[in-house]
Amino acid sequence: MNERTVLPQIRTFFWGAGCAFSGVAGLLLFLFPEKTETLFAWTIVRGDTAAFLGACFLGISLLAFLCYGLTTWGAVRFPFVGTLTFVAAMTLATLLHLDQFHYGSGEPLALVMAWGWTLVYLAAPVAGAVLLSRQRQEPGSDTRSASPIVPGLRYLYLAQGTLLSVVGVVLFVAPGTADTLWPWPVGPLPARAIAAFLLGFGVMLLGVGRENDAEILEPPGAACWWMALLAGMATTRFDGSIDVGSPRGLIWCLVAVSLIFSGVAGELAARRLRVDPSAPPPPPRPKPPRRRIEG
Predict the structure, then answer these.
(1) Residue among 94, 131, 102 nearest 16 (CA)
(2) Does 291 fall in a domain?
(3) Pick from 2, 36, 45, 118: most CB atoms within 10 A?
């Protein structure tokens, strides 16, 4: 049975809109982290938190951009499920903290971002669930002729996915634990926003590790190393964000470095396995002449 193809609505709405919205939000937060009161949907007190969230949004935007051009469901299934997890968690975080959004702001961009944010995160989980249900009804199979991931890299994905998911759940359910789990102080809404990203990337990495198919690693791998690299750049812009000598700071840095390593390794592995179907097959190697044995 042929592999399922991706619904056009998923490519247009989820990946197209996701790339655009996350890209705009990411650039605003990453480039102007100390101007969220006038440029963003809600005020983020600390610049390092705003820049970090911007890096995460840019990671989601890159993931959506890379998935937009893929046509088989097996290639985007786990990025889609991970992104849908992130969207659902961010929607719940928004509903729990509506009083912090700039719905009555006198700043035009902040006002537009607040209402745009709310509309996007109210519509996206419903649309994503409907599209996922319709996608599952499409004819075809989800099984692929997988090229296994190198065992060490696969176990690293599973470990990263588990760690990010567990920390994400704890931060979301009890944002006050950020004082002990996160390297710098964050409030309840930023803690839950960070948790939404951790859950999204964690679920995606767990799915990729369980699937054990190196050919689908390019979008998740690129998004992970890009997000981790930008997150490192974001935090180094602010003095005192991370104390590398503390256990929390050291673990944060090790996780970021491991995401860069596993992301680059996964992306390169997927690219090596990519085959151009239009390329002519290599010519057959000539057989060596048989040596004549004289009697």
Answers:
(1) 131
(2) no
(3) 36
pLDDT confidence bin for 139, thresholds 50/70/90: confident
Q: How confident is the model at residue 171 (pLDDT cuts 50, 70, 90)?
A: very high
Q: Is 295 contained in some domain?
A: no
Buried b (16+ CB within 10 A) or exposed e, 52-77: bbbbbbbbbbbbbbbbbebebbbbbb
How far apart, in whole angstroms, are the C-alpha atoms of residue 219 and residue 64?
8
Give me the mean pLDDT over the 164-179 stretch: 95
Structural domain count of the chain? 1
Contact predicate 101/42, CB 8 Å: yes
Paired strand residues for 3: 141
CB 59 within 8 A of CB 227: yes
CB under 8 Å to 137, separation ≥6 — which residues? Answer: none
Q: What is the CA radius of gyration of the chain?
A: 22
Separation CA 64–CA 200 (nearest Å): 13
Which residue range(s) make up the domain with 42?
8-273
Only one residue has tokens 């690293």, namely 156
Token representation of residue 13: 């709405």
